[in-house]
Amino acid sequence: MHNASVEAIAKLVEPGRIHRRVYADPDVFELEMERIFGRAWLFVGHTSQIPHPGDYFTTELGRQPVVMTRHRDGTVHVLLNRCTHRGAKVVNERCGHAARLTCLYHGWSFDTDGALVGVPIPEGCAADFRKEQFGLARVPRVREYRGFVFASLAATGASFEDHIGPIKSNIDDLVDRAPDGALAFDLGMHRYAFNGNWKLQVENVLDSYHVPFSHASTVNKQGVQFARREGDKAGAKVVEADQSKSDQDKTSQSWKGRRSYIVGNGHGWTSNTALDEGKRSSPTFDEYKRVLTAKVGADRAQHILTPRLHNTLIYPNVSIMGLNIHVRVIKPVAVDRTEITVYPVRLLGAPDAMNFANIRLLNVTHAAASFVQTDDIEAFVRIQKGLQSRATDWVDISRGLGDEEPDRELNATRGSAMHEMAVRAQYKAWLGYMREAA
Amino acid sequence: MDGAAATEAVARAPTARTSAIERSVFEAFLFAEARLLDERRFRDWMALFADDGTYWVPAVADQASPFNQVSLFYDDRELMKTRVDRLEHPRIHIQTPPSRTAHLVGNVMLDDADDAAGEYAVSSTVIMVEYREDNQRVFAGRQIHKLRRTADGFRIVQKRVNLVNCDSAFDAMAVPI
Fold it and tell me: Which residues in chain B have Cβ-Cβ distances shorter than 8 Å to A220?
């Protein structure tokens, strides 16, 4: 597969179906690490994780360890976290602060922009050794938008502007909810993992079809889910309560009316969850609304607080949820192992109680021990098991094929959220990366 | 370590408070609570909590508050009821088949006692082995029960479990520790 021909890769994706090898073949996974995670614009982290010069945050881009730093001139750097001497991971903590990044093995030390500044016992160095040539490797392209840091491990390729395109406004939708117009990722992180392919999580964030069935255990006898936002008395109506109807018939109309949108490069979103906006009220929410209105004016506040988005996917590794707000990062570990980080976001300028309420509800929706995410994880694990079967080689993603229509107002392509248009759009992007040799 | 240093080290070690109530009474309560969980009697387990009781499993080591950082569990009685309703729901996929667990509670110490107010803090080490679908895993940590004495026996004001791997990336968890 490493020398896979364009034809061999292209055969794995058809208009309405995907070959099982896309999820289950270790060779395909290796190629993804090279051709997708080795070159695409990936979400790295948020600038609020490194507010001060000398602050650092470690993560991985694909499988490669990196450290995101704030240099003394305020610039953000993303460096390969690998000593240029003998290869040790230099920064070992998840986050912290240091004037120099020092390797434990022989004490080589690097500035926070990656420059090699200290080599103990320099008289052993070769005559032509130049420190300038031994700085920590820099991820070649790094761009930031409203605190969201993206990076590409490839020096060339689509520009960030071309990659992000109109999905940029979905970042605005989240950030604008902060009265001060900025977010902080400083409320901890949920981490969960599962024995399944990374794309199962990617596909799931824009899949509304699964909700009434996968999440059946989260609804009460009236078919209503628990509240997921401060100020709501209850959650969305997920299934009709009428027990005389069959499962197929009683799936809530509110889900059938939802739409999904795609805007190229694999990105997309689903429309908002139907909730009774007029009744959203609590002392905490009302105070937040008052603060936001005071900052941005009544009309603007009304616009910001009118939900338009449920989930947004910025392909290939990050999603934003508009309901109980958070940012989720998808990290492939192996063909059948994936790790997820979920960051609650703090709305700067919002009352503390509003941010606290969001954290509490995120605990029960997206923690490893949550009510909602756990049943998704079970689905991912069972898919990975099921795909070991050779009953057929194909996974079907044909729902709504041919029913897509342009949405000129939103400059997007629109379909029913109960269809699989968004998944097909992801595989169009996938194939775009995968068929192009480095 | 010389004699004086050893004496000093012992003096610095955590010491149990004393109470009119024997330690064995607290232990019996903790053992019974663990057994309810192992027998999947989640509704009976919930009934051990006071109306203002909370169940907290932090996601950060030494977490100071459940309000400014995420937690694996932070349930008041209302969320706990939603959780228990779901654990009894026939279509909870992550419990199909259900987990089987074995809790071991030991190293029980009375950290705080106010006999007049009837309020106590009991800490213990908990190990829970969980088995589901050919996979067995271990959770371990120190738990602190804040208890209130009532006419019907102790009620849990807060159960906090400090897992040794609280900030790990966990495979899905469904049952309380």
Answer: 85
Q: Tell me, what DSSP letter sits at residue A264? A: S
Buried b (16+ CB within 10 A) or exposed e, A216-250: bbbbbeebbbbbbbbbbeebbbbbbeeeeeeeeeb
Contact B171 A371 (CB under 8 A): no
B82 neighbourhood in chain A, CB within 8 Å? 226, 364, 371
What's CA B51's distance to the chain center, in Å? Answer: 17
**Cα nearest neighbour of B173 on chain A:** A369
Contact (CB<8Å) A368/B169: yes
Nearest-by-Cβ selection for B74 from A190, A218, A360: A360
Q: Which pLDDT belongs to residue A256?
A: 73
Q: For the CA atoms of chain B, what is the radius of gyration?
A: 18
Domain region containing B147: 24-163
pLDDT band, very low/low/confident/very high, at B90 (cuts 50, 70, 90): very high
Average pLDDT, chain B: 95
Residue B76 counted as domain residue: yes
Say which residue the tokens 């994706």 belong to: A13
Q: In DSSP terms, which residues pair with B137 in a beta bridge? A: B130
Distance from CA of B46 to the nearest CA of A (A): 17
Q: Residue B60 is nearest to which of A188, A360, A374, comparing CB atoms? A: A188
A367 CB neighbours in chain B (<8 A) are 59, 70-73
pTM over 0.80: yes
Residue A313 is encoded by which pair of tokens? 């996917």
Task: Give the Å distances, CA to CA, from A402 to A16, A209, A377, A379.
Answer: 10, 18, 30, 27
Domains in chain A: ranges and CATH: 42-145 (2.102.10.10), 165-434 (3.90.380.10)
For chain B, the domain total comes to 1
Determine, yes or no, domain membership for B168.
Answer: no
